Amino acid sequence: METGEEFGPWLARQLRLAGKSQAELAEELGLTRAAVSAWITKRSVPRPTVMVEIAKALGTDLGTVHTRTTDTQAGLPVTWYHRPGYHDGGRDGGNAAAFAFDADVQVLARETCQNSLDERLAENGRPVQVRYTIHELTGGMLDAFRKAILWDDLHPHYASVSQTASHQKVGRVVDAGVRDMFEKGRLVLLRVDDYNASGLTGDDYDDGKFAAVVRRQLESLKSGRGAGGSYGLGKATLWATSALGMVLINSTLSVPHEGRTERRVIGRLELPWRSVDGEAYAGPAWLGRPDPDSPGALVARSWWADDETVASLHLTRDSDEPGTSFLIVGAHDVASLDQGTVDFDADEEDGADDDGTRDVRAMHRRLVEALGRDFWAATTGGGSRLPLLETSVRTLRNGEVLVEEEKVDPTVTQPSRTRALRAFYEGTTVDRLTEAGQVALRKVPFRLPLAGGRRGTLGTHQAVLLVTDAEDADGAPNQVHSLRGNRMTIKKAGVAGLPLGVNAFQAVLLTGHAAGDSVPFVDEAEDFLRAAEPPEHDRWGQTEELTLRWSHTAHHRISRLTTEVNSAVKELVAKPKRSAGEGGTKLRKALTVPRKTAVPRRAAGPSLPELDGLEASIGEAGEWRITAEVKLPRVEELPAMTPTVLLDVRSGSRPRLDWAELVAVDGCEIENGVLRFTPGARRAVFRGSTDVTSHPVRTALTRLVLELRAGKGE
To answer: CA nearest 138: which of 360, 384, 355, 289?
Structure first.
């Protein structure tokens, strides 16, 4: 049974909800106002016989007064509160934070799973469990759900948004979501539940996890130094994935609030500015119980719902274990159209009569794929180390199972990398690969800079590189997956300039707490790499935070780490040369290798490095990702060159793109975007990705041109 709230604060709130004063309650009870005041201020508690009279005065039962684990039903009902329009006439066309991410269930999986990892209750050693439930409603179940969310009260607001939809991106999305619900008679709910997590603790308005998620933007209050998030943007993916801009929340708290832990419920709606019946509304709205402490009791706050209410809102949790359930109302997956995942062969009942953005089977597949790709390490255990995470996906239609629950198994989605990580945990790694199935380990130095723009090195953090044979299920071979404390894959990159004939491999780079809690400078490495991640947390490179806290050249330390990693990988996967004594004598005699005659050396001329190879692909964010190989002439001094990336056009000058990341891999260094080659090297390799914000058109519609320009390439 939950621990009840103290009587005084509980009674004070019930009086505010019922609109009664202390004097009025005292008069009903036939007592003095001083007696009621003593209860409120916790100087005394009423006698059991008086408790009965208090229950009658509040219109509730005696059990509610004794346990005090819920509010009485007296007072103001649950309703929607819409933020009034700004007095200065300003208007918002939607929540800008939601535009940081696409309406993509794979991005949603990455951000929400990361948030759950950050809020895991680590004290018990158990993993956080995250379950994704896709639920399509039609017919009577859809009607009942609309009634539960008070749709009749919301309809005028949606109608107003639809009238001005052509002028706003958010408005067009919302209008399409409403039309889909009514014209096709269905609504897709996507629920994200986590268990063994902290829950949305804290007050409705003061600093705390609840206010950070429900009330505020660009605020991140994470529980540990190894946390993945840092921008406070990840929660915006919930609303970005809702075509109706609506998310409902039910949280079970790890720390009691108002004496309770279970069924803390609230809803938040994100709409653009609108006018309804002559009243202007700024954008967001909240579903909750009117707060008696707010002016006119208009502002809605969270409330402690009963089992029947959470069931009607499709928010019933499986247990009383701490954690939070987020229900995305009107879920859509626009990014699935670019991935070609829509099942056009499905029958009409399965949703093939629309554009595929609400194809529940495709959503299911893409969620499983994303969880297996990005969180294989967090779901892997071995030796004395348990998994940090367990994930699963299930799909329902009107309460009936449409696709069975699928638990994401890292040994299936990433068999080679899982084998490598387990070998590290179990201490079965080797120094060099000599047999199939082995895992080689190499320590890679990561030199951390001094903060505040000071020159010098703070210390060297020893990252851990693991290399093993690749399997078909791993995806593209010869890749390095890099991660830190929360064990989410941050960076995925190929290794360029590999020797000929190497066996396909997969590599894992462990940094920060992922390399071990006792590794020197582990906290400093976590802090530095966390600051080097953009809001998408999908790479390490130059960021504004890195520049402000360290220096504008601090990201070069990451480039050097990449160079060290690639060199170590090449050394581990290169086949050892055969000694002169190897091979049969007869075979050696049968082979003759003519000696090369000396070739006169040509006089040194104005030879320049030239591009000799280029691999390019389009990344998940729509950026160009390139790996280039440069042939270096035999000259004593090699000039500096600037890699310049352009778009190929039929006429006119070629638009120049900006680099988001430029990394030296082999035979060169990069400083302020300029290539400087290693003396004596014959070939150099570098890798880069373009800045999507500099693309004038969608990447898939363009062709890439890479040039090497002498000097600084101005």
So the answer is: 360
Question: pLDDT tens digit string along 617-649?
Answer: 887 778 888 888 888 888 878 888 899 988 876
SS (H, E, C) 65-88: HHHCCCCCCCCCCCEEEEEECCCC
Spatial contact of 117 and 128, defined as CB atoms under 8 Å apart: yes
Q: Could you identify the residue written with the tokens 């609504």?
A: 187
Query: What tokens appear for 46 in the block?
Result: 């009423």
Contact 247, 329 (CB under 8 A): yes
Angle between helices 48-58 and 22-29 (to 10 degrees): 120
B/e letters for 592-626, b = 16+ CB within 10 Å, e = fewer, are eeeeeeeeeeeeeeeeebeeeeeeeebbbbebbbb
- Within a 10 A sphere around the Cβ of 208, how many other Cβ atoms? 17
pLDDT, tens digit, for every residue of 189-234? 999 999 999 999 999 988 889 998 998 765 655 544 444 444 445 6
Helices (H) and strands (E) in the chain, counts: 20, 25
**The tokens 């639920």 sit on which residue?**
135
Q: How many CA atoms lie within 13 A of 327 on its CB side?
A: 23
Q: Alpha-carbon distance 445 to 460, whole Å?
A: 6
Contact between residue 129 and residue 199 where contact means Cβ atoms under 8 Å apart: no
Model confidence, pTM: 0.73
DSSP letters, 638-670, are PPPEEEEEEE--SSSPPPBPPEEEEEEEESEEE
Residue 216 phi/psi, 5° resolution? -125, 165
From CA 706, how far away is CA 714, in angstroms rounded? 15
Distance CA 336, CA 490 (A): 22
- Token pair, residue 658, equals 């900006």
pLDDT for 509-529, tens place per residue?
999 999 999 999 999 999 999
Which residue blocks in 390-459 are alpha helix, DSSP H? Answer: 410-413, 415-426
DSSP string, 556-591: HHHHHHHHHHHHHHHHHHSPPPPPTT-S-HHHHHH-
Inter-residue long-range contacts of 517-525, CB under 8 Å, 24+ positions, other chains counted: 519/461, 519/462, 520/459, 520/460, 520/461, 520/462, 521/448, 521/458, 521/459, 521/460, 521/461, 522/461, 523/225, 524/448, 524/458, 524/459, 524/461, 525/446, 525/448, 525/461, 525/463, 525/484
Helices (H), 124-208: 139-148, 151-163, 169-183
| Residue 17, SS3 per DSSP | helix
Burial class of residue 111 in the structure, from the number of CB atoms within 10 Å of its CB (0-12 exposed, 13-18 middle, 19+ buried): buried
Interatomic CA distance for residues 49 and 55, integer angstroms: 10
Query: What φ, ψ does residue 668 adopt, rounded to 5°?
Result: -165, 170
> In this structure, is the dihedral angle defined by the CA atoms of residues 528, 534, 540 and 541, taken in order, positive or negative?
negative
| DSSP secondary structure letters along 221-235 | --SSTT-S--SS-TT
Give per-residue burial for 166-189: e unless 16+ CB within 10 Å, then b.
Answer: eebebbebbbbbbebbeeeebbbb
Instruction: Please report the pLDDT score of residue 678 as a whole number.
Output: 86
Going by their DSSP bridges, the two strands 505-510 and 479-483 should be labelled as parallel
For residue 671, the surrounding DSSP H or E stretch is: strand 668-671
- Tokens representing 565 are 């990693």
C-beta separation of 121 from 198 below 8 A: yes
CA–CA gap between residue 508 and residue 488 (Å, rounded): 12
